[in-house]
Amino acid sequence: MRNLLLVVFMLALGGYSFAEETVQTGTSASEFELGQMNRDFAAALNAKDARAAAALYTEDAVLIPPGEAPVRGRQAIEEYWKGAIEAGGVRDVSVETMDALSSGSLGYETGSFQLTVNGPDGEAIVDRGRYIELLRREPDGRWLSTHGIWNAAPEQ
User: Fold this and answer.
1) Which CATH number fits domain 2-152: 3.10.450.50, 1.20.1050.10, 3.40.50.1100, 3.40.50.720?
2) Nearest CA among 70, 51, 66 for reference residue 146
3) What value does the mean pLDDT take over residues 94-117?
4) What pLDDT is attached to residue 25?
5) Residues with Cβ < 8 Å from 115, sequence gap 6 or more?
6) How high is the pLDDT of residue 26?
7) At residue 87, what are phi and psi to the nearest 5 degrees?
8) Domain ranges for the chain
9) Average pLDDT, the chain
10) DSSP state of 108
11) Which of 22, 68, 75, 115 could staple 93 via S-S, CB 3.0–4.6 A?
């Protein structure tokens, strides 16, 4: 099932031929390596640094927030997170990798998150959810997100 998911994600990313990937395959990244992008992302939000958060996405990345229009491109992603930080007081962000896999320079990570935001009345609201990141290894070895989507975790 994991291999089927990886094939689907690889096809969704487009722009890569399987022949190119076969030549560049090398070794697969570890779950820890693939999860680093979101650990760095959580640290950037905790530091209220939208620019650092956006730097973890490719220039042409697409962010797909729940119930909102897609956010396209690193600059727009930076503005999105800047607005979220300013409006909601995003803080206490943590992530946990649930699954991750790569093949060549493409990979994915699924995980869960928890963060605190200010509600309309100023009261702290703890938000829990799940996410998936489609990742691409850059020439410098860093894994950046090409597509990110998240949703709320089911009530327990």
Assistant:
1) 3.10.450.50
2) 70
3) 96
4) 47
5) 45, 90, 91, 92, 93, 94, 126, 127
6) 58
7) -80, -40
8) 2-152
9) 85
10) E
11) 115
